[in-house]
Amino acid sequence: MATPSDGFSYDTIVRAYTSTRYVNYLAVSSFALVIVDFLHTFPDEVRLMWKAPMSLPNVLFFAIRYYSLVQGAFSQWTCKHILTFLGQPPRW
Q1: Whole-number Å distance between alpha carbons of 80 and 28
Q2: What CA–CA distance (Å, rounded) separates 69 from 34?
Q3: Are the C-beta atoms of residues 34 and 69 closer than 8 Å to each other?
Q4: pTM summary value
Q5: 58-75 burial, b if ≥16 CB within 10 A, otherwise e?
Q6: How many other C-beta atoms are found inside a 10 Å radius of the C-beta of residue 11?
Q7: Of 24, 47, 48, 68, whose CA is between 20 and 30 Å from 3?
Q8: Residue 59 CA to chain centroid, in angstroms?
Q9: What letter would DSSP give residue 52?
Q10: What digits encode the pLDDT tens for the residues 32-80?
């Protein structure tokens, strides 16, 4: 346990924990926005992009669109499994 003689103050630990919580909240909320955007624009994507011939703009569109979706899901999955491995199961 950290004591003031170790160079850490309890206030510093509490502030670090609070900051980490805020960062986690922002990460989850930004991923929620990505999901909402994906669901909202998916019908337009099917209508406009899937039926168009394959070109560089189409490839870039799909790469960027699905990379953000996969990356967000993977980061949430990784965070959950790391916390479980460390013996601190996540609360979500």
Answers
A1: 12
A2: 7
A3: yes
A4: 0.61
A5: eeeeeeebeeeeeebeee
A6: 9
A7: 24
A8: 23
A9: S
A10: 888 899 999 999 999 999 898 999 999 999 999 999 888 877 776 666 6
